[in-house]
Amino acid sequence: MKYSNHGRRTENFNRNWKFIREDISGAEQSCFSDAGWEMVCLPHTPRIESLHVDMHFQGICWYRKHFALDEADKGKKIFVEFEAAMQEADVWINGKVKLNHKGGYLPFTIDISNDVDFDGANVIAVRLDNRNNGSIPPGKPLESLDFSYFGGLYRNIHLHVTEKLHITDAVYARKPAGGGIFVNYTDVSQASATLEVQTHVRNEHETAKKAKIVTTLLDNQGRQVGSAESLIETIMAGGAHTFVETMTIRKPQLWHPDTPYLYTLQTKILEDDHTADEIHTRIGIRTISFSKEGGFVINGVKLVIRGTNRHQQFPYIGNAASNNAHYRDAKKLKEAGFNFVRLGHYPQATAFLNACDELGLMVVEPVPGWQYCEEGEFQDIVKQNIRDMIRRDRNHPCVIMWEVSLNETYIGRIGATDEFFHECHLIAHEEYPGEQMFTSGDTMGRNNPAYVGYDVPYTLWNDETLSRPLEEVLSDKGGFDREYGDYEFGGHESTSRVPRDAGEQKLLLQAWNYQWSLNRNRGNRWSLGDASWVGIDHNRGCFPRLSECGALDTFRLPKFVYYFYQSQRRQDIVHEHAESGPMVYIANYWSERTSPKWVVVFSNCDEVELFVNGKSVGVRKPDQGPDTEYGERVTGYEVDYWLRDEEQHKGKDACLQGKTDAGDMKVFAYDGGNCRNLAQAPFTFTGLAYVPGELMAIGRIGGKEAAKHVVRTPLEPETLSLRIDMSGKELSADGADFVFVYAEIKDANGTVVPSACNEVLFEIDGPAVIVGENPVRAEAGIATVLLQAPETPGEIIVIALAKGVKPASIKLASV
């Protein structure tokens, strides 16, 4: 695919790469024969992994691509931009070494203008090494790392062809607070906003050139709403110049998570009225601030940050996700009710940030790191990573904080000094001057957090008083909870880590953990907001099992806690591209039970009426009970940050019980309390005798029905039913895009049978392949495969078969 502006052409460089998973001598040479190598399309992972992989592939692999250039490109600048490569990359063009790049999460570019042949074939060769390397962030060996980084050319590659007089790439230019396009905003209000636009232009002609910049602001309908024109400047041969323009926009549409309005900034270089280069930059106009007294403020209005964390990985293919897949993740997190995502613990794909811009998800972007801070080359790369991530992403309106502290890297780790992290803070402010740069990071473990200087310090709540530590040292700053809801409930055996087939009680306990924690957070007057750990289940290098504390499982299927968060979204906000508005959900399978005789309903409506087999069993307002202790220790329970006064609730009947390797504990869940600080409390119906049949919840707003949810007692499995997760993006026939196909095992009434664990076989007819396991055993009544489309579009038929139930089929098209 090619797309071009005047004077510039960009090509998708993802197709027709040769690949081999071993180290090969001489593979950098253009005359080397790669005839026996596998042909692949990017993004690509070096090895398809098992679902529960911990130690993914680590080693050497090679990629090679043969390509030709147009004769018309002679005399122009030709760049190859890698969005990322994991994790040490050596790159050659036609046998000439071009680059050694260390780091797996940020882009790098090579200039091949003088290395290519316009009369024949060219070869670009890439050697990747993703073995443990203490010099490359995150630095920690995979076997002790709490996430997986996989490998390969796992993001997009682009070929850019420009004139010799061109707008630079911000990362490639390596210019503090410069390079490329950099947009800042001042005097932002509903009435007007002033844009300051920096444009960095390089002249690689052999003579000086006179040029000017014309900048035009287009609304989301493509209409001009503002413009600016610079003076003509003379740029010397081999030199560069930064043009600075300002424009004032009347009655701007401001970017906000509830109204994520985007403009397009059109930037042109004019040389003697000829367009030498043109770039389009998508921007959002907004202003933000953080303070202890005012909280987080966007566009002059306080907003509580309600977020989660996300790892960038997917089952089987690791991090090698398409742009569409990143969008689908963002859409699901937005629909869950979150307005914020922490990119734990590294910069993620530009496509994900683009989706956050579009959908209205605010972001904190962390520099790569995790419990490690060796002096020397590692710290040098960290500091360059901070510069590169800001240069890459500074124009995204979704990014509101820059995390520069290396996750959980406290005093005691070699090199983790206050001086180093203070320098990281200063580097961020050098790269992004002005009042709209906010660094964030861990205050825990810093000797002098005031000296380190994070604008938004991360916090840990004191066990005994739930008061904020460092109150005297950081008395003027609000705090942010970067992770909550998982580790405090049992460490590596946390009761928040629940697979989707764990059963109703454990799913409810998981939801209760997050409710209890969120209510605690919201009750603290220093809190600017928080991010749950974690939005989506993920693999872990240090543990042979998925981290299952997600609101969504690894196949992006929701657990009960997903709907708890959904109930926290505002009923009156309707988003154009995401499910929103009123909702109601019964967190119950309504099957034969010995569990407590209550039913929990999550809803953002004013009231909920519950019906059993058509008969009303009551109307309830949201729960309003008091805050209580979390529970009671039964035996030694070591990791219990929040458990105190064990005797307070002894003898209570309404409790759930969670078991860990440290013992048992009683949890007093869904007692009608621990909800007063929430945006919306659950609706807990008590005293319900189980009668097989149907539960129906009707949510009302102002006395009128606004949402409805029905669950039915599951019967015996009878049939399969197929559905496909598009989440706002059709399956793209680009060789990399994929969708999840869900085979639901249903009874005669169309109810998914949560106890069903049949093995399901999928068959495909048409241009698509299944990546990973097939057949697949159903989990909680649903079997899932990852369906990937090659580069040929067309109709695809998916058939699902399982013993003892009727088969199913479904059609879709890749486009």
UniProtKB/TrEMBL annotation:
Start and end residues of each Glycoside hydrolase family domain: 722-811
One Pfam family matching this protein: Glyco_hydro_2
Domain of life: Bacteria
Domain Glycosyl hydrolases family 2 sugar binding residue range list: 58-160
SUPFAM superfamilies: (Trans)glycosidases, beta-Galactosidase/glucuronidase domain, Galactose-binding domain-like, Invasin/intimin cell-adhesion fragments
Domain DUF4982: 599-625
Domain Glycoside hydrolase family 2 immunoglobulin-like beta-sandwich: 185-286
InterPro entries xrefs: Beta-gal/glucu_dom_sf (IPR036156), DUF4982 (IPR032311), Galactose-bd-like_sf (IPR008979), GH (IPR017853), GH2_Domain-Containing (IPR051913), Glyco_hydro2_dom5 (IPR040605), Glyco_hydro_2 (IPR006101), Glyco_hydro_2_cat (IPR006103)
Residue span(s) of domain Glycoside hydrolase family 2 catalytic: 292-413
Keywords: Glycosidase, Hydrolase
Family the UniProt entry places it in: Belongs to the glycosyl hydrolase 2 family.
Protein name, UniProt field: DUF4982 domain-containing protein
Organism: Paenibacillus plantarum
